[in-house]
Amino acid sequence: MAKGPVIVITGTPGTGKSTHAALLANESPVPLRHINVSEWVKERELYEKYDEEWQTYTVDEDRLLDDLEPLVAEGGLILDWHTCEAFPERWADLVVVLRCDHTKLWERLEARGYPLKKIQENNEAEIMQVVLEEARSSYAPEIVVELESENMENLESNVTRIGGWITTWLKNQESS
Ligand SMILES: Nc1ncnc2c1ncn2[C@@H]1O[C@H](COP(=O)(O)OP(=O)(O)O)[C@@H](O)[C@H]1O
Q1: Which of 29, 42, 95, 160 has its CA 20 to 30 A from that of 7?
Q2: CATH number of residue 127's parent domain
C-alpha cells in the first residue's frame, strides 16, 4: 500500500489547525498521524528557553527537524504548526493555510486566556496574512491552499476537500 502524504496545516494560532487536523486524521482515506508541533516541542523539550514575556517557547529548530525527519520519511503525517517556513520544502505534499476573520480570531484567543499583547500580535499577523505569505514564499504555489475556517460548515467542507485531495494523491502515487 502506498504511504500517505505529508500535509502541513498552518495558520495563525486560533484559526483551527488542531481542530482540522483531528477531524482529518479521523476521516482520511489513509491513516495519518497528527503531530501538534507546539505540543511535541514541549513534550520532547525541543526548545532553547521559555520566553516569560510572550509566554512561548523558543524552539530549537535544528533538533526539531532532526526529530521529525524519520516520521516524515515514513509519510502519512499531519504537521500542525503556526509557522511552516522552518520545514524543508521537500517535506510537504500539501500546505493548508487556515484563515479566519480577525474579530472571530480575537474572541477565540481571548477564550483561550491569551494575554492581551499576544492576542494583539496574532490578530495583526492574521490581518497582514503573515502565515500565508510565509507559506507562499516557502513552497511551490500549486501545493499551497488557503482555506477559510470561520464556522463548522467551513471545517467540514475543508476536511472533505483535503480528503478528496488525498484520494487523488494516492491514485497518482500508484500510477507513477
Ligand atoms: N472552523 C471553525 N468553526 C468554528 N470554530 C472553530 C473552527 N476552527 C476552530 N474553531 C474553534 O476555535 C478554537 C481554536 O481552534 P484550534 O483548532 O485549537 O486552533 P489552532 O490549532 O489553530 O490554534 C477552538 O475553540 C475551536 O473549537
Answers
A1: 42
A2: 3.40.50.300
